[in-house]
Design a protein that fits this description.
alpha/beta; five-stranded mixed β-sheet; two-stranded antiparallel ribbon; 11 strands; globular; disordered N terminus; disordered C terminus; phosphatidylinositol-3-phosphate phosphatase activity; Tyr_Pase_AS; MTMR14
Length: about 600
Protein backbone atom coordinates (compact mmCIF):
# COMPACT_ATOMS: atom_id res chain seq x y z
CA UNK A 1 0.00 0.00 0.00
CA UNK A 2 1.43 3.34 -0.98
CA UNK A 3 0.26 6.89 -1.22
CA UNK A 4 0.92 9.17 -4.17
CA UNK A 5 0.26 12.77 -4.99
CA UNK A 6 -2.21 13.68 -7.69
CA UNK A 7 0.38 15.98 -9.26
CA UNK A 8 2.91 13.19 -9.72
CA UNK A 9 4.51 12.68 -13.05
CA UNK A 10 3.25 9.21 -13.92
CA UNK A 11 -0.13 8.79 -15.57
CA UNK A 12 -0.53 5.10 -14.78
CA UNK A 13 -3.26 4.23 -12.26
CA UNK A 14 -0.91 1.86 -10.52
CA UNK A 15 1.27 4.75 -9.55
CA UNK A 16 -1.55 6.30 -7.56
CA UNK A 17 -1.48 9.47 -9.59
CA UNK A 18 -4.08 11.53 -11.35
CA UNK A 19 -1.77 13.43 -13.62
CA UNK A 20 -3.58 11.96 -16.58
CA UNK A 21 -6.38 14.34 -15.83
CA UNK A 22 -4.00 17.26 -16.06
CA UNK A 23 -3.14 16.49 -19.63
CA UNK A 24 -6.67 15.66 -20.63
CA UNK A 25 -8.42 18.59 -19.03
CA UNK A 26 -7.34 21.01 -21.74
CA UNK A 27 -8.93 18.84 -24.42
CA UNK A 28 -12.31 17.21 -24.64
CA UNK A 29 -12.90 14.68 -21.85
CA UNK A 30 -12.32 11.05 -22.84
CA UNK A 31 -15.41 9.20 -23.92
CA UNK A 32 -14.24 5.71 -22.98
CA UNK A 33 -15.19 3.88 -20.97
CA UNK A 34 -18.69 5.21 -21.41
CA UNK A 35 -21.58 4.91 -19.04
CA UNK A 36 -23.13 2.12 -21.11
CA UNK A 37 -19.96 0.05 -20.87
CA UNK A 38 -19.80 0.72 -17.14
CA UNK A 39 -23.39 -0.39 -16.54
CA UNK A 40 -22.95 -3.48 -18.68
CA UNK A 41 -19.85 -4.49 -16.72
CA UNK A 42 -21.58 -3.64 -13.44
CA UNK A 43 -24.58 -5.83 -14.27
CA UNK A 44 -22.31 -8.68 -15.41
CA UNK A 45 -20.08 -9.16 -12.38
CA UNK A 46 -19.30 -7.84 -8.93
CA UNK A 47 -16.07 -5.88 -8.59
CA UNK A 48 -13.38 -7.52 -6.48
CA UNK A 49 -10.05 -5.84 -5.95
CA UNK A 50 -8.10 -9.10 -6.04
CA UNK A 51 -9.50 -9.95 -9.48
CA UNK A 52 -8.84 -6.58 -11.11
CA UNK A 53 -6.02 -5.79 -13.48
CA UNK A 54 -5.22 -9.38 -14.46
CA UNK A 55 -6.00 -10.72 -17.92
CA UNK A 56 -7.46 -9.12 -21.00
CA UNK A 57 -11.00 -9.58 -19.67
CA UNK A 58 -10.39 -6.92 -17.02
CA UNK A 59 -9.37 -4.17 -19.41
CA UNK A 60 -12.79 -2.59 -18.91
CA UNK A 61 -12.28 -2.50 -15.15
CA UNK A 62 -8.87 -0.89 -15.57
CA UNK A 63 -10.37 1.81 -17.77
CA UNK A 64 -13.10 2.42 -15.18
CA UNK A 65 -10.52 2.77 -12.40
CA UNK A 66 -8.38 5.12 -14.46
CA UNK A 67 -11.37 7.23 -15.46
CA UNK A 68 -12.35 7.71 -11.81
CA UNK A 69 -8.87 8.98 -10.98
CA UNK A 70 -9.04 11.39 -13.91
CA UNK A 71 -12.40 12.78 -12.78
CA UNK A 72 -11.26 13.22 -9.18
CA UNK A 73 -8.14 14.97 -10.46
CA UNK A 74 -10.18 17.66 -12.21
CA UNK A 75 -10.94 19.48 -8.95
CA UNK A 76 -8.84 17.92 -6.20
CA UNK A 77 -5.33 17.02 -5.20
CA UNK A 78 -5.38 13.59 -3.67
CA UNK A 79 -3.33 10.67 -2.46
CA UNK A 80 -4.01 7.05 -3.34
CA UNK A 81 -3.97 4.15 -0.90
CA UNK A 82 -2.95 1.03 -2.80
CA UNK A 83 -5.25 -1.96 -2.44
CA UNK A 84 -4.06 -3.80 -5.54
CA UNK A 85 -4.82 -7.36 -4.46
CA UNK A 86 -7.51 -6.53 -1.92
CA UNK A 87 -5.05 -6.91 0.94
CA UNK A 88 -6.73 -4.08 2.84
CA UNK A 89 -10.30 -4.87 1.79
CA UNK A 90 -11.42 -7.17 -0.97
CA UNK A 91 -14.57 -5.14 -1.68
CA UNK A 92 -12.94 -1.68 -1.82
CA UNK A 93 -11.32 -0.08 -4.90
CA UNK A 94 -7.79 -1.09 -5.83
CA UNK A 95 -6.96 2.62 -5.80
CA UNK A 96 -8.62 4.20 -2.78
CA UNK A 97 -8.71 7.97 -3.24
CA UNK A 98 -7.97 10.23 -0.28
CA UNK A 99 -8.97 13.78 -1.22
CA UNK A 100 -6.54 16.23 0.36
CA UNK A 101 -7.77 19.62 -0.73
CA UNK A 102 -9.69 21.31 -3.51
CA UNK A 103 -7.56 22.89 -6.17
CA UNK A 104 -8.00 24.01 -9.73
CA UNK A 105 -5.79 22.63 -12.46
CA UNK A 106 -3.57 25.73 -12.42
CA UNK A 107 -3.08 25.67 -8.65
CA UNK A 108 -2.20 22.02 -8.19
CA UNK A 109 1.56 22.51 -8.37
CA UNK A 110 1.58 25.50 -5.99
CA UNK A 111 0.50 23.64 -2.84
CA UNK A 112 2.18 21.01 -0.72
CA UNK A 113 0.13 18.41 1.07
CA UNK A 114 0.03 18.33 4.86
CA UNK A 115 -1.43 14.82 4.85
CA UNK A 116 0.74 12.20 6.48
CA UNK A 117 -0.01 9.36 4.11
CA UNK A 118 2.10 6.89 6.05
CA UNK A 119 0.11 7.62 9.20
CA UNK A 120 -3.16 7.22 7.33
CA UNK A 121 -2.00 3.89 5.89
CA UNK A 122 -0.99 2.67 9.31
CA UNK A 123 -4.35 3.62 10.82
CA UNK A 124 -6.22 1.92 7.99
CA UNK A 125 -4.20 -1.29 8.41
CA UNK A 126 -4.83 -1.39 12.13
CA UNK A 127 -8.50 -0.43 12.06
CA UNK A 128 -9.76 -2.65 9.23
CA UNK A 129 -10.57 -5.55 11.59
CA UNK A 130 -12.93 -3.40 13.61
CA UNK A 131 -15.67 -3.34 10.99
CA UNK A 132 -17.77 -5.90 9.21
CA UNK A 133 -16.04 -7.54 6.21
CA UNK A 134 -13.03 -5.32 6.85
CA UNK A 135 -14.84 -2.34 5.31
CA UNK A 136 -13.05 0.35 7.30
CA UNK A 137 -13.92 4.03 7.60
CA UNK A 138 -13.07 5.49 4.20
CA UNK A 139 -13.36 9.19 3.22
CA UNK A 140 -15.08 9.58 -0.16
CA UNK A 141 -16.30 13.21 -0.35
CA UNK A 142 -14.44 16.38 0.62
CA UNK A 143 -16.77 19.28 1.28
CA UNK A 144 -15.36 22.55 2.63
CA UNK A 145 -12.54 20.74 4.38
CA UNK A 146 -14.82 18.12 5.92
CA UNK A 147 -14.52 14.43 5.15
CA UNK A 148 -17.74 12.55 4.39
CA UNK A 149 -16.93 8.90 4.99
CA UNK A 150 -18.47 5.48 4.47
CA UNK A 151 -17.92 2.08 6.07
CA UNK A 152 -19.64 -1.06 7.32
CA UNK A 153 -20.91 -1.38 10.87
CA UNK A 154 -18.77 -2.70 13.72
CA UNK A 155 -17.76 -6.35 13.57
CA UNK A 156 -19.14 -8.71 16.20
CA UNK A 157 -17.08 -11.15 18.23
CA UNK A 158 -17.66 -14.06 15.82
CA UNK A 159 -16.25 -12.29 12.78
CA UNK A 160 -13.54 -10.60 14.79
CA UNK A 161 -12.19 -13.82 16.28
CA UNK A 162 -12.52 -15.65 12.99
CA UNK A 163 -10.55 -13.10 10.99
CA UNK A 164 -7.90 -12.49 13.66
CA UNK A 165 -7.32 -16.26 13.90
CA UNK A 166 -7.08 -16.53 10.12
CA UNK A 167 -4.57 -13.67 9.96
CA UNK A 168 -2.54 -15.16 12.81
CA UNK A 169 -2.24 -18.55 11.12
CA UNK A 170 -1.34 -17.24 7.68
CA UNK A 171 1.09 -14.60 8.95
CA UNK A 172 3.38 -17.16 10.55
CA UNK A 173 2.15 -16.70 14.11
CA UNK A 174 2.34 -12.93 14.25
CA UNK A 175 -0.07 -10.16 13.45
CA UNK A 176 1.47 -6.72 13.03
CA UNK A 177 -1.96 -5.11 12.99
CA UNK A 178 -2.18 -5.57 16.74
CA UNK A 179 1.43 -4.73 17.59
CA UNK A 180 0.68 -1.64 19.64
CA UNK A 181 1.94 -1.89 23.19
CA UNK A 182 0.39 1.38 24.29
CA UNK A 183 -3.20 0.21 23.86
CA UNK A 184 -3.42 -2.49 26.53
CA UNK A 185 -1.34 -2.12 29.68
CA UNK A 186 -0.46 -4.87 32.13
CA UNK A 187 -2.93 -3.50 34.67
CA UNK A 188 -5.68 -3.54 32.07
CA UNK A 189 -5.07 -7.20 31.37
CA UNK A 190 -5.67 -8.10 34.99
CA UNK A 191 -8.97 -6.23 35.07
CA UNK A 192 -10.54 -7.10 31.74
CA UNK A 193 -11.54 -10.30 30.03
CA UNK A 194 -9.87 -11.44 26.85
CA UNK A 195 -12.93 -10.34 24.87
CA UNK A 196 -12.79 -6.81 26.21
CA UNK A 197 -9.06 -6.60 25.57
CA UNK A 198 -9.54 -7.52 21.91
CA UNK A 199 -12.46 -5.13 21.45
CA UNK A 200 -10.56 -2.35 23.21
CA UNK A 201 -7.68 -2.84 20.82
CA UNK A 202 -9.48 -3.09 17.47
CA UNK A 203 -12.16 -0.50 18.21
CA UNK A 204 -9.51 1.75 19.68
CA UNK A 205 -7.79 1.79 16.28
CA UNK A 206 -11.13 2.49 14.60
CA UNK A 207 -11.67 5.47 16.88
CA UNK A 208 -8.17 6.77 16.13
CA UNK A 209 -8.93 6.68 12.41
CA UNK A 210 -12.22 8.51 12.94
CA UNK A 211 -10.44 11.21 14.94
CA UNK A 212 -7.66 11.52 12.38
CA UNK A 213 -10.34 12.25 9.78
CA UNK A 214 -12.04 14.69 12.21
CA UNK A 215 -15.26 12.69 12.10
CA UNK A 216 -17.72 13.63 14.80
CA UNK A 217 -21.10 12.52 13.45
CA UNK A 218 -21.86 8.81 12.92
CA UNK A 219 -25.13 8.03 11.12
CA UNK A 220 -26.22 4.42 11.47
CA UNK A 221 -28.83 3.26 8.91
CA UNK A 222 -29.39 -0.19 10.43
CA UNK A 223 -32.90 -1.16 11.49
CA UNK A 224 -31.32 -3.55 14.02
CA UNK A 225 -29.13 -2.86 17.02
CA UNK A 226 -27.12 -5.95 16.09
CA UNK A 227 -27.41 -8.13 13.01
CA UNK A 228 -28.51 -11.61 14.07
CA UNK A 229 -28.20 -14.73 11.92
CA UNK A 230 -28.98 -18.26 13.12
CA UNK A 231 -29.39 -16.88 16.63
CA UNK A 232 -25.91 -15.35 16.73
CA UNK A 233 -24.92 -11.70 16.77
CA UNK A 234 -22.79 -11.41 13.64
CA UNK A 235 -22.34 -7.63 13.75
CA UNK A 236 -22.62 -4.86 16.31
CA UNK A 237 -22.88 -1.07 16.12
CA UNK A 238 -21.60 2.02 17.90
CA UNK A 239 -24.95 2.68 19.54
CA UNK A 240 -24.89 -0.58 21.51
CA UNK A 241 -21.18 -0.72 22.37
CA UNK A 242 -21.31 -1.86 26.01
CA UNK A 243 -18.11 -0.07 26.97
CA UNK A 244 -19.39 3.18 25.40
CA UNK A 245 -16.15 3.62 23.53
CA UNK A 246 -17.91 5.89 21.01
CA UNK A 247 -19.50 8.15 23.62
CA UNK A 248 -17.43 11.14 22.47
CA UNK A 249 -19.04 11.00 19.01
CA UNK A 250 -22.49 12.27 18.06
CA UNK A 251 -24.35 9.06 17.28
CA UNK A 252 -27.48 9.12 15.14
CA UNK A 253 -29.65 6.06 14.70
CA UNK A 254 -31.67 6.65 11.53
CA UNK A 255 -33.10 3.24 10.60
CA UNK A 256 -33.68 2.80 6.89
CA UNK A 257 -35.05 -0.30 5.12
CA UNK A 258 -32.51 -2.73 3.71
CA UNK A 259 -32.15 -3.79 0.10
CA UNK A 260 -34.83 -6.52 0.50
CA UNK A 261 -37.45 -3.82 0.85
CA UNK A 262 -36.70 -2.53 -2.62
CA UNK A 263 -38.24 -5.63 -4.15
CA UNK A 264 -41.51 -4.09 -3.01
CA UNK A 265 -40.50 -0.95 -4.90
CA UNK A 266 -39.88 -2.92 -8.07
CA UNK A 267 -43.04 -5.03 -7.70
CA UNK A 268 -45.09 -1.83 -7.49
CA UNK A 269 -43.90 -0.78 -10.92
CA UNK A 270 -41.03 1.24 -9.46
CA UNK A 271 -43.35 3.56 -7.55
CA UNK A 272 -42.05 4.72 -4.16
CA UNK A 273 -44.95 7.01 -3.24
CA UNK A 274 -47.13 5.37 -0.60
CA UNK A 275 -44.71 2.49 0.04
CA UNK A 276 -44.22 2.25 3.81
CA UNK A 277 -41.85 -0.11 5.60
CA UNK A 278 -43.32 -2.53 8.14
CA UNK A 279 -41.65 -1.44 11.38
CA UNK A 280 -43.43 -4.15 13.43
CA UNK A 281 -41.26 -7.01 12.17
CA UNK A 282 -39.49 -8.99 14.87
CA UNK A 283 -35.93 -8.17 13.85
CA UNK A 284 -36.52 -4.38 13.78
CA UNK A 285 -35.33 -3.12 17.17
CA UNK A 286 -33.35 0.06 16.42
CA UNK A 287 -35.40 3.17 17.21
CA UNK A 288 -34.81 6.49 15.54
CA UNK A 289 -32.50 8.52 17.76
CA UNK A 290 -31.23 11.99 16.83
CA UNK A 291 -29.83 14.63 19.21
CA UNK A 292 -32.29 17.41 19.97
CA UNK A 293 -29.74 19.97 18.82
CA UNK A 294 -30.25 18.66 15.29
CA UNK A 295 -33.95 17.81 15.25
CA UNK A 296 -35.21 21.15 16.54
CA UNK A 297 -33.73 23.01 13.60
CA UNK A 298 -35.20 20.95 10.78
CA UNK A 299 -38.93 21.48 11.36
CA UNK A 300 -39.63 17.79 10.77
CA UNK A 301 -41.92 15.74 12.99
CA UNK A 302 -39.53 12.86 13.60
CA UNK A 303 -42.10 11.09 15.78
CA UNK A 304 -43.96 10.24 12.58
CA UNK A 305 -41.03 8.48 10.89
CA UNK A 306 -42.74 5.09 10.91
CA UNK A 307 -45.62 6.47 8.87
CA UNK A 308 -43.42 8.01 6.16
CA UNK A 309 -43.40 6.44 2.74
CA UNK A 310 -40.12 5.69 0.99
CA UNK A 311 -40.00 9.11 -0.68
CA UNK A 312 -40.59 11.07 2.53
CA UNK A 313 -38.18 8.98 4.54
CA UNK A 314 -35.36 9.33 2.01
CA UNK A 315 -36.00 13.05 1.64
CA UNK A 316 -35.98 13.70 5.39
CA UNK A 317 -32.85 11.64 6.01
CA UNK A 318 -31.07 13.47 3.21
CA UNK A 319 -32.10 16.82 4.71
CA UNK A 320 -30.60 15.68 8.01
CA UNK A 321 -27.31 14.68 6.41
CA UNK A 322 -27.10 17.93 4.45
CA UNK A 323 -27.80 19.88 7.62
CA UNK A 324 -24.97 18.07 9.40
CA UNK A 325 -22.36 18.71 6.70
CA UNK A 326 -23.40 22.37 6.57
CA UNK A 327 -23.02 22.87 10.33
CA UNK A 328 -20.66 25.51 11.65
CA UNK A 329 -18.03 23.15 13.01
CA UNK A 330 -15.36 21.47 10.93
CA UNK A 331 -16.38 17.94 11.85
CA UNK A 332 -16.76 15.16 9.34
CA UNK A 333 -19.54 12.63 8.86
CA UNK A 334 -19.62 8.83 8.70
CA UNK A 335 -22.55 7.03 7.07
CA UNK A 336 -22.90 3.26 7.35
CA UNK A 337 -25.40 0.41 7.27
CA UNK A 338 -24.48 -3.24 7.85
CA UNK A 339 -22.08 -4.14 5.05
CA UNK A 340 -21.94 -0.64 3.59
CA UNK A 341 -22.72 -1.56 -0.01
CA UNK A 342 -26.50 -0.92 -0.40
CA UNK A 343 -28.02 1.79 1.79
CA UNK A 344 -24.65 3.47 2.34
CA UNK A 345 -23.90 4.18 -1.34
CA UNK A 346 -27.51 5.32 -1.77
CA UNK A 347 -27.01 8.24 0.61
CA UNK A 348 -23.37 8.86 -0.32
CA UNK A 349 -24.40 9.14 -3.96
CA UNK A 350 -27.34 11.45 -3.16
CA UNK A 351 -25.06 13.66 -1.06
CA UNK A 352 -22.46 13.85 -3.81
CA UNK A 353 -25.02 14.68 -6.50
CA UNK A 354 -26.90 17.20 -4.35
CA UNK A 355 -23.75 19.15 -3.41
CA UNK A 356 -22.53 18.98 -7.02
CA UNK A 357 -25.87 20.34 -8.27
CA UNK A 358 -25.33 23.37 -6.02
CA UNK A 359 -21.88 23.91 -7.55
CA UNK A 360 -20.10 23.18 -4.26
CA UNK A 361 -18.08 20.08 -5.14
CA UNK A 362 -16.66 18.62 -8.36
CA UNK A 363 -17.27 22.02 -9.90
CA UNK A 364 -15.69 21.27 -13.28
CA UNK A 365 -17.59 18.03 -13.93
CA UNK A 366 -20.47 17.92 -16.38
CA UNK A 367 -23.67 15.96 -15.63
CA UNK A 368 -22.54 12.89 -17.56
CA UNK A 369 -19.17 12.97 -15.78
CA UNK A 370 -20.50 13.26 -12.23
CA UNK A 371 -22.97 10.48 -13.05
CA UNK A 372 -20.14 8.28 -14.27
CA UNK A 373 -18.05 9.03 -11.17
CA UNK A 374 -20.76 8.24 -8.63
CA UNK A 375 -21.91 5.07 -10.42
CA UNK A 376 -18.35 3.81 -10.87
CA UNK A 377 -16.78 4.84 -7.57
CA UNK A 378 -19.61 4.99 -5.04
CA UNK A 379 -21.39 1.86 -6.29
CA UNK A 380 -19.31 -0.37 -8.56
CA UNK A 381 -15.80 -0.07 -7.10
CA UNK A 382 -17.07 -0.19 -3.51
CA UNK A 383 -18.61 -3.59 -4.09
CA UNK A 384 -22.35 -3.15 -4.61
CA UNK A 385 -23.63 -6.54 -5.77
CA UNK A 386 -25.81 -5.36 -8.64
CA UNK A 387 -25.92 -8.81 -10.26
CA UNK A 388 -27.33 -10.37 -7.11
CA UNK A 389 -29.71 -7.49 -6.44
CA UNK A 390 -31.11 -7.59 -9.97
CA UNK A 391 -31.67 -11.35 -9.76
CA UNK A 392 -33.73 -10.80 -6.60
CA UNK A 393 -35.47 -7.66 -7.84
CA UNK A 394 -33.92 -5.57 -5.06
CA UNK A 395 -33.32 -2.48 -7.16
CA UNK A 396 -31.98 0.03 -4.68
CA UNK A 397 -29.39 1.11 -7.26
CA UNK A 398 -32.06 2.11 -9.78
CA UNK A 399 -34.06 3.84 -7.03
CA UNK A 400 -31.12 6.10 -6.19
CA UNK A 401 -31.04 7.82 -9.57
CA UNK A 402 -34.77 7.74 -10.21
CA UNK A 403 -35.19 9.48 -6.84
CA UNK A 404 -33.28 12.57 -8.04
CA UNK A 405 -36.57 14.08 -9.22
CA UNK A 406 -37.58 14.38 -5.55
CA UNK A 407 -34.61 16.55 -4.47
CA UNK A 408 -34.48 19.20 -7.18
CA UNK A 409 -36.05 22.02 -5.14
CA UNK A 410 -34.31 24.66 -3.05
CA UNK A 411 -35.40 22.74 0.04
CA UNK A 412 -32.38 20.50 -0.46
CA UNK A 413 -29.95 23.20 -1.54
CA UNK A 414 -26.93 23.94 0.63
CA UNK A 415 -26.71 27.37 -0.99
CA UNK A 416 -29.72 28.75 0.84
CA UNK A 417 -27.90 28.54 4.17
CA UNK A 418 -24.99 30.45 2.67
CA UNK A 419 -27.34 33.12 1.30
CA UNK A 420 -28.88 33.58 4.70
CA UNK A 421 -25.51 33.67 6.41
CA UNK A 422 -24.44 36.60 4.25
CA UNK A 423 -27.73 38.44 4.86
CA UNK A 424 -27.32 41.82 6.65
CA UNK A 425 -28.83 42.02 10.11
CA UNK A 426 -31.34 44.67 9.08
CA UNK A 427 -32.78 44.21 5.63
CA UNK A 428 -35.94 46.12 4.92
CA UNK A 429 -37.00 44.20 1.82
CA UNK A 430 -36.34 43.40 -1.79
CA UNK A 431 -35.34 45.57 -4.65
CA UNK A 432 -36.91 45.23 -8.08
CA UNK A 433 -33.76 43.53 -9.33
CA UNK A 434 -33.94 41.07 -6.45
CA UNK A 435 -37.49 40.09 -7.30
CA UNK A 436 -36.69 39.67 -10.98
CA UNK A 437 -33.65 37.54 -10.18
CA UNK A 438 -35.62 35.49 -7.72
CA UNK A 439 -38.17 34.37 -10.28
CA UNK A 440 -35.52 32.89 -12.52
CA UNK A 441 -33.11 31.48 -9.99
CA UNK A 442 -34.18 31.33 -6.37
CA UNK A 443 -37.77 30.21 -6.46
CA UNK A 444 -38.47 26.54 -5.96
CA UNK A 445 -39.92 24.70 -8.89
CA UNK A 446 -43.70 24.51 -9.01
CA UNK A 447 -43.83 21.48 -11.29
CA UNK A 448 -41.28 19.12 -9.70
CA UNK A 449 -42.65 16.35 -7.50
CA UNK A 450 -40.55 17.60 -4.61
CA UNK A 451 -41.19 21.31 -5.12
CA UNK A 452 -43.62 21.94 -2.26
CA UNK A 453 -41.05 24.34 -0.84
CA UNK A 454 -39.33 27.49 -1.96
CA UNK A 455 -37.43 30.27 -0.27
CA UNK A 456 -40.17 32.64 -1.38
CA UNK A 457 -43.71 31.45 -1.97
CA UNK A 458 -46.26 33.62 -3.67
CA UNK A 459 -49.56 34.00 -1.89
CA UNK A 460 -51.84 32.61 -4.52
CA UNK A 461 -54.62 30.04 -4.68
CA UNK A 462 -52.25 27.62 -6.37
CA UNK A 463 -49.51 27.92 -3.79
CA UNK A 464 -48.82 25.02 -1.47
CA UNK A 465 -49.14 26.29 2.08
CA UNK A 466 -48.70 29.84 3.31
CA UNK A 467 -45.35 31.26 4.37
CA UNK A 468 -44.05 34.68 5.33
CA UNK A 469 -41.63 36.29 2.96
CA UNK A 470 -37.98 36.06 3.88
CA UNK A 471 -35.12 38.39 3.06
CA UNK A 472 -32.38 36.68 1.13
CA UNK A 473 -29.13 37.85 -0.38
CA UNK A 474 -29.35 37.09 -4.06
CA UNK A 475 -25.85 38.22 -4.91
CA UNK A 476 -24.26 35.07 -3.53
CA UNK A 477 -23.84 32.42 -6.19
CA UNK A 478 -22.27 29.00 -6.28
CA UNK A 479 -19.23 30.35 -8.10
CA UNK A 480 -18.63 33.13 -5.58
CA UNK A 481 -19.07 30.76 -2.66
CA UNK A 482 -16.60 28.34 -4.18
CA UNK A 483 -14.07 31.08 -4.87
CA UNK A 484 -14.36 32.39 -1.33
CA UNK A 485 -13.72 28.93 0.07
CA UNK A 486 -10.67 28.35 -2.08
CA UNK A 487 -9.29 31.69 -1.00
CA UNK A 488 -9.74 31.38 2.75
CA UNK A 489 -10.12 27.66 3.62
CA UNK A 490 -11.42 28.82 6.98
CA UNK A 491 -15.04 29.70 6.42
CA UNK A 492 -17.80 27.31 7.43
CA UNK A 493 -21.42 27.17 6.36
CA UNK A 494 -24.00 28.58 8.71
CA UNK A 495 -26.31 26.21 10.54
CA UNK A 496 -29.81 27.49 9.88
CA UNK A 497 -33.29 26.09 10.41
CA UNK A 498 -34.89 24.37 7.46
CA UNK A 499 -38.35 25.62 6.61
CA UNK A 500 -40.85 22.92 5.79
CA UNK A 501 -44.41 23.63 4.70
CA UNK A 502 -47.40 21.55 5.56
CA UNK A 503 -48.05 18.97 2.96
CA UNK A 504 -50.56 19.60 0.28
CA UNK A 505 -53.56 17.36 -0.02
CA UNK A 506 -52.11 15.27 -2.81
CA UNK A 507 -49.00 14.53 -0.75
CA UNK A 508 -50.87 13.54 2.41
CA UNK A 509 -51.03 9.75 2.61
CA UNK A 510 -54.53 8.45 3.08
CA UNK A 511 -55.75 5.22 4.61
CA UNK A 512 -55.94 3.65 1.16
CA UNK A 513 -52.68 5.29 0.12
CA UNK A 514 -50.31 3.53 2.50
CA UNK A 515 -49.16 -0.05 2.48
CA UNK A 516 -47.12 -1.68 5.21
CA UNK A 517 -44.76 -3.74 3.10
CA UNK A 518 -44.04 -7.16 4.57
CA UNK A 519 -41.58 -8.47 2.02
CA UNK A 520 -44.38 -10.11 0.12
CA UNK A 521 -44.51 -9.50 -3.60
CA UNK A 522 -48.19 -10.41 -3.66
CA UNK A 523 -49.15 -7.84 -1.05
CA UNK A 524 -47.40 -5.05 -2.90
CA UNK A 525 -48.52 -5.98 -6.37
CA UNK A 526 -52.14 -6.14 -5.24
CA UNK A 527 -51.99 -2.49 -4.25
CA UNK A 528 -49.72 -1.15 -6.97
CA UNK A 529 -52.55 0.07 -9.15
CA UNK A 530 -53.98 2.13 -6.31
CA UNK A 531 -50.76 4.06 -5.96
CA UNK A 532 -49.79 4.63 -9.56
CA UNK A 533 -50.31 8.34 -10.16
CA UNK A 534 -49.58 10.47 -13.16
CA UNK A 535 -45.98 11.62 -13.00
CA UNK A 536 -44.88 9.02 -10.47
CA UNK A 537 -43.29 6.62 -12.93
CA UNK A 538 -39.47 6.68 -12.77
CA UNK A 539 -39.30 6.20 -16.53
CA UNK A 540 -41.86 8.78 -17.53
CA UNK A 541 -40.76 11.01 -20.38
CA UNK A 542 -40.46 14.62 -19.11
CA UNK A 543 -43.39 16.77 -20.17
CA UNK A 544 -43.29 20.31 -21.52
CA UNK A 545 -43.16 22.91 -18.76
CA UNK A 546 -43.92 26.61 -18.74
CA UNK A 547 -41.65 27.81 -15.95
CA UNK A 548 -37.89 28.02 -16.22
CA UNK A 549 -36.19 25.39 -14.01
CA UNK A 550 -33.53 26.41 -11.51
CA UNK A 551 -29.94 25.54 -12.26
CA UNK A 552 -30.02 22.90 -9.55
CA UNK A 553 -33.12 21.32 -11.03
CA UNK A 554 -31.71 21.36 -14.54
CA UNK A 555 -28.48 19.71 -13.47
CA UNK A 556 -30.16 16.94 -11.51
CA UNK A 557 -32.74 16.32 -14.21
CA UNK A 558 -29.97 15.96 -16.78
CA UNK A 559 -28.18 13.44 -14.59
CA UNK A 560 -31.40 11.52 -14.07
CA UNK A 561 -32.45 11.50 -17.73
CA UNK A 562 -28.95 10.40 -18.81
CA UNK A 563 -29.03 7.55 -16.33
CA UNK A 564 -32.54 6.41 -17.32
CA UNK A 565 -31.77 6.49 -21.02
CA UNK A 566 -28.58 4.45 -20.60
CA UNK A 567 -30.09 2.10 -18.03
CA UNK A 568 -33.12 1.38 -20.20
CA UNK A 569 -30.90 0.46 -23.15
CA UNK A 570 -28.53 -1.74 -21.13
CA UNK A 571 -29.37 -3.11 -17.70
CA UNK A 572 -33.07 -2.30 -17.50
CA UNK A 573 -34.26 -3.71 -20.81
CA UNK A 574 -32.16 -6.82 -20.50
CA UNK A 575 -32.46 -7.66 -16.83
CA UNK A 576 -35.96 -6.78 -15.69
CA UNK A 577 -38.19 -9.85 -15.70
CA UNK A 578 -41.56 -8.92 -17.21
CA UNK A 579 -44.35 -8.88 -14.66
CA UNK A 580 -47.63 -10.68 -15.40
CA UNK A 581 -49.19 -7.38 -16.36
CA UNK A 582 -46.17 -6.39 -18.44
CA UNK A 583 -46.38 -2.90 -16.94
CA UNK A 584 -42.68 -2.25 -16.39
CA UNK A 585 -41.81 -3.58 -19.84
CA UNK A 586 -44.25 -1.13 -21.35
CA UNK A 587 -42.83 1.71 -19.28
CA UNK A 588 -39.29 0.91 -20.35
CA UNK A 589 -40.31 0.80 -23.98
CA UNK A 590 -42.29 4.01 -23.62
CA UNK A 591 -39.32 5.81 -22.10
CA UNK A 592 -36.89 4.44 -24.66
CA UNK A 593 -39.06 5.68 -27.49
CA UNK A 594 -39.57 9.01 -25.76
CA UNK A 595 -35.85 9.73 -25.57
CA UNK A 596 -35.26 8.56 -29.14
CA UNK A 597 -33.77 5.14 -28.49
CA UNK A 598 -34.28 2.34 -31.00
CA UNK A 599 -35.42 -0.73 -29.12
CA UNK A 600 -35.58 -4.02 -30.95
CA UNK A 601 -37.98 -6.75 -29.98
CA UNK A 602 -35.08 -9.09 -29.29
CA UNK A 603 -33.72 -6.76 -26.64
CA UNK A 604 -37.02 -6.60 -24.84
Amino acid sequence: MAGARAAAASSSPSSGSSSASSSSSSSSPPQEPGLAELLEEFSRTQYRAKDGGSGAGNAKVERIEKRCLELFGRDYCYSVIQNLNGEICGHYPRYIVFLEYESSEKEKDTFESTVQVSKLQDLVNRSKMARCRGRFVCPVILYKGKHICRSATLAGWGELYGRTGYNYIFSGGSDDAWADSEDITEDDCTLRSADNQLFDKVRGHDIKLLRYLSVRYICDLMVENKKVKFGLNVTSSEKVDKAQRYADFTLLSIPYPGCEFFKEYKDRDYTAEGLVFNWKQDYVDAPLSIPVTLTRSLNIDWNEYQSWDLVQQTQNYLKLLLYIVNSEDDSGLLVHCISGWDRTPLFISLLRLSLWADGLIHTSLKPAEILYLTVAYDWFLFGHMLVDRLSKGEEIFFFCFSFLKHITSEEFSALKSQRRKSLPARDTGFTVDDLCSMKSRDRGSTTSLSSDFSLVTESSPGATGSFPYESVDLSSTATQSQAAWRKSHTSSPQTVPWNRPQQSDDRQPSCQGIVEAKFSSSSSSNHSDNFFRTGSSPLEVPKTRFTAPTERESRLEEVRSTFLATYSSTVGLKSVTPSPSGAIGGLLEQFARGVGLRVSSSTL
